[in-house]
């Protein structure tokens, strides 16, 4: 949409909100790295779930609609939990890199960690560092004791291949060659088309919502 | 570090209270790591999802059906379900109950989900 520079209010119908949640969930599931956090979506979904629960409590007992709404609540809660769990797994897996990326984030750049995730990540790091210091390193010679977690914990593999569906037509996407002999070339991504491509190439398009990982 | 990852997995599989048989095999440092980890996780889960928080260790599988077949492992007594009716949970009795109501009791070891 067109932006006039001010902050846009997120006004979505419940259906659109759940769709946004599902899109964020799938992207997070299939992206090799931790994606931008979406606190607005989470907040609205939680509110939506509370609202639906409250409605159910007021409904007539034995009403058939109750089952259908209950199913929907369970489904949404599953997607939300799965999404947040997926993020936690990545945060724990790549913790030194995730924290480093967040610390060196420029002003105005979107955050990959929510404040709560940031606290969790810091605690995880401190906890793990303490453990390693107390256990592994006291048995090693002093010069090896300064272990850099940034170096020893592997980074996400951004070269892994992902499936995607194009939501907004993209032109002239630069593809770097895998082998030295090939030259780099550009491709156009037609709306609605599906591709198998290296994540690194299309990472910005996931963030902008131009493509959907599947 | 590999052991740590397995200990971390324990929190997600067994819950926040580790069976003694497992704790027996853990070093003091590992137990400390586990306790700090579960506390940190609990804080995070409380911060998400409104007043009660969102227990992320539940809803691990997508919901396939509203009702599930369960077997009662211990005597529990009367258990109320949504429409006001109560069920008597006696050891070895089997019931067809709403899934969301059973999850807690399954975790506590009172009920067992019968997978056909």
Features:
heterodimer; A: 214 residues; mainly alpha; Ribosomal Protein L9, domain 1; 2 domains; two-stranded antiparallel sheet; 5 strands; 12% strand; B: 116 residues; alpha+beta; Methane Monooxygenase Hydroxylase, Chain G, domain 1; 3-stranded antiparallel β-sheet; two-stranded antiparallel ribbon; elongated; nucleus (chain A); GINS_A (chain A); SLD5_C (chain A)
Structure classification of chain A? mainly alpha
Bin the helical content of chain A: 40-55%
CATH topology of the largest domain in chain A: Methane Monooxygenase Hydroxylase, Chain G, domain 1
Q: How many helices of chain A in DSSP terms?
A: 7
* Distance from first to last alpha carbon of chain A: 24 Å
Radius of gyration over C-alpha positions of chain B, nearest whole angstrom: 17 Å
* CATH architecture classification name of the largest domain in chain A: Up-down Bundle
Shape of chain A: flat
State the domain count of chain A: 2
Number of strands of chain A: 5
Q: Low-confidence segments of chain A, ≥5 residues, pLDDT <50?
A: 1-7
Order of helices and strands of chain B: HHHEEEEHE
CATH class placement of the largest domain in chain B: Mainly Alpha
The helix content of chain B is: 25-40%
Global shape of chain B: elongated
Instruction: Give the topology string of chain A: H per helix, E per strand.
Output: HHHHHHEEEEHE
Unreliable spans of chain B are none
Average residue pLDDT of chain B: 79
The figure for the number of domains of chain B is 2
Computed over alpha carbons, the radius of gyration of chain A is 22 Å
GO biological process, one term (chain A): double-strand break repair via break-induced replication
Subcellular location (chain A): Chromosome; Nucleus
Organism (chain A): Heliornis fulica
InterPro entries (chain A): GINS_A (IPR021151), GINS_bundle-like_dom_sf (IPR036224), GINS_Sld5 (IPR008591), SLD5_C (IPR031633), Sld5_GINS_A (IPR038749)
